[in-house]
Amino acid sequence: MSNMKEQRHDVHPLSMLIITFTYILVVASFHTYAFIELIPLSLYPIAMIVVHRLSIRHIKSILLASLPFITVIGASQLFFIHEHISFFHWRIEARWLVFATLFAKNILAVLAATVLFLTTPIEQLAGALLSLRIPRLLVIQLLLTYRYIFLFLEEAKRLRQAYMLRAPNHRAIQLSVWGSLVGHLLLRTFERAERVYEAMTLRGFSIQRMHIKIKRWTMKEMIYTYVTIGLFIVYRLVVI
Amino acid sequence: MHMADALISPAVGIAMWGATAGVASYSLKKLNIEADEKKLPLMGVLGAFVFAAQMINFAIPGTGSSGHLGGGLLLAALLGPYAAFLTLAVVLFIQALFFADGGLLAFGCNVFNLGFYTCFIAYPLYKRLIRRTNIWLASIIAAVVGLQLGAFSVVVQTLLSGKVELPFTTFTLFMQPVHLAIGIVEGMATAAVVSFVMKTKPELSTPANTPTNRLIGTLGLLALLIGGIFSSVASSKPDGLEWSILRTAGTEELHTTTALHHALERLQQSLALLPDYNLRSGGASIGWLDVGTSVSGIIGVFVVAIAMLIPYMMKKWRKET
Questions:
Q1: Cβ contact A172–B98 (<8 Å)
Q2: Do B108 and B147 contact (CB within 8 A), yes or no?
Q3: B41/A159 touch (CB, cutoff 8 Å), yes or no
Q4: Which of A128, B85, B230, B300 would you label with A114, given CA atoms 20 to 30 Å apart?
Q5: 3 state DSSP class of B290
Q6: What is the pLDDT of residue B253?
Q7: CA–CA separation, B191 and B202 (whole Å)
Q8: Residue of A50, A11, A210, A236 lying closest to A130 (CA atoms)
Q9: Residues with Cβ within 8 Å of residue A47, at least 6 apart in sequence
Q10: Residue B122's pLDDT is what?
């Protein structure tokens, strides 16, 4: 997905990682009634979406997936907060403001993470993690797991479909059968790991020698990063 | 049980990132992947397997509902605790980044809640139980213990963050029973898969290294007890520094004057992990037990214990190699 974007808009993966983390940190640090203060912060993800021409439909689906959990927690606030506070010139119930703030924070944090993932290919992200001194083993793990997730998801879908076609009246798989079904998927996984390892060894793989490209952090990118996170931090210090 | 960034304060998020990094680096050392390079692709594909297996729902016997595999305990049973912890950390990172399931700032909390307790407490328990009882009971008990601790951790981290108003008792009484049910389902799922693997490929379900943690466990429980219960009974008199300020300036806290001072003070207030060693929402108490102070005590014990254990474990590792 992220490989499809145009090259000329590339931001260095390390910059993206640092900026995203600082952004989420700033969003999270606002207090529970800071709904209005959060609104200007939405400029960053919106700007990124516009500049990188990211797919709104894809972002919407990720955003929707994150909402049920926060809605439950937010809704619980409606039962526990009974105070009234003044909001501009109105006197409003505090619980709705807390609910709105939680919701806004969640949307901003998820948007920032989604922008990071949509603009930065996983291989470049791996390079950025390596330059942050994250152990090589974990980075290789990340690449391997990411590589195989989509493969196995397909396999799991086929397994489920095959069962459902044979037992059309079942809403879910019986536990006694489920064990061997998933067990078989697991055994296939093991066999695949074996084959992967053999193929890797035949090509001369070793953890130390595995090549992960680390892009150079140029002066321009460094300035861009510091200015952006500087803006976030200044905004946070000014608006308290 | 995946926590979102909106529920976490920066201080709690960063502290848990630190704790997770500590446990991960210890696991990396202990795993010694250079000696067993073959484990690397296995960890990778098993991480992906957890994603895939979560898609396949099963009917829960006796109820009308269905459940799916969580994966922590299963990974530990197949890979051993160290490799399982690292695999889970990677899985959670991918979930946070690509599926918006759990946040980036909350990543440390999530790895700790879902990985640490299952791999380093539930799994050793499972190993011990499996010798005495059958695999179903052993994995149900272990999964329940792991999830109960994880759920309690979620409660503590949420309350310490002070981003939502949730009474400690109500939140705990809600989270623990829900996760009791989830734990039983997780245990059944793990047992179903592990017993299948044991029948077909018995050599796969016995990983070599497990932590010896009887001493650490006993000390940990003792410390939690002291931190949790006795801290609330402890004196509320000002500590040394505050006392000396009181003596010299005539007031307990120095008054700040400039606008910058005010701004920084307010920032510190909003970032503080345990303002005056109490929960920000504060106030809750059960009898003589002050819940805020107790929870602060428990968190304090966790942080100190982790900080102390890491150098000790690294030293031990160096001796072994």
A1: no
A2: no
A3: no
A4: B85
A5: strand
A6: 45
A7: 14
A8: A210
A9: none
A10: 93
Nearest by CB to residue B55, choosing from A157, A176, A187, is A157
Say if CB A210 and CB B224 are below 8 A apart: no
- Closest approach of chain A CAs to the CA of B188, in angstroms? 8
Chain A CB contacts of B43 under 8 Å are 141, 144-145
The two three-digit tokens of residue B71, written as one number: 């994966």
Structure confidence by residue, pLDDT tens digits, A176-196: 888 888 888 888 888 888 888
Which candidate from B5, B33, B170 shows the least CB-CB separation from A109? B5
Return the axis-axis angle of helices B72-79 and B168-200, rounded to nearest 10°. 40
Alpha helix positions (H), A53-135: 56-80, 94-119, 122-131
What ipTM, to 2 d.p.? Answer: 0.87
Beta strands in B168-321 (DSSP E): 285-286, 289-290
Task: Give dist(CA A118, CA A59) in Å, integer.
Answer: 9
Q: d(Cα B90, Cα B102) in Å, to the nearest integer?
A: 13
pLDDT tens digits, B44-100? 888 998 888 887 888 877 777 777 788 889 999 988 899 999 999 999 999 888 887
B274-306 exposure pattern, b = at least 16 Cβ within 10 A, e = fewer: bbebbbbbeebeeeeebbbbbbbbbbbbbbebb
Q: Which of residues 151-170 of A touch B (CB under 8 A)?
A: 151-153, 155-157, 159-160, 170
Q: What is the pLDDT of residue B309?
A: 56
What does the DSSP 8-state code read for residue B3? P
Can you tell me the distance from the alpha carbon of B309 to that of B269, in angstroms, rounded to the nearest whole number? 30
> How far apart (Å, rounded) are the C-alpha atoms in residues B140 and B191?
8
Name the residue among A77, A110, A187 with its Cβ closest to that of B200.
A187
Give yes or no for A190 touching B (CB within 8 A): yes
User: Measuring CA to CA, how many Å separate B73 from each of A233, B120, B123, B142, B183?
Assistant: 41, 10, 6, 8, 11
B165/A116 CB distance under 8 A: no
**Per-run averaged pLDDT (10 residues), chain A, 240 residues:** 50 91 92 87 92 89 86 82 76 83 91 91 90 88 88 86 85 83 86 83 77 82 92 88
Q: Hey, are the CB atoms on B86 and A137 less than 8 Å from each other?
A: yes
User: Cβ contacts (< 8 Å) between A63 and chain B: which residues?
Assistant: 100
The structure tokens listed for A206 are: 């070793």
Give the pLDDT of residue B212: 46
Which parts of chain B sit beneath pLDDT 70? 33-35, 204-321
Q: Phi and psi of A21, rounded to 5°?
A: -65, -45
| Minimal C-alpha gap between A70 and chain B (Å) | 8
List chain A residues with CB under 8 Å of B178. none
Residue A173 forms beta bridges with which residues? B58
What's the whole-model pTM score? 0.76
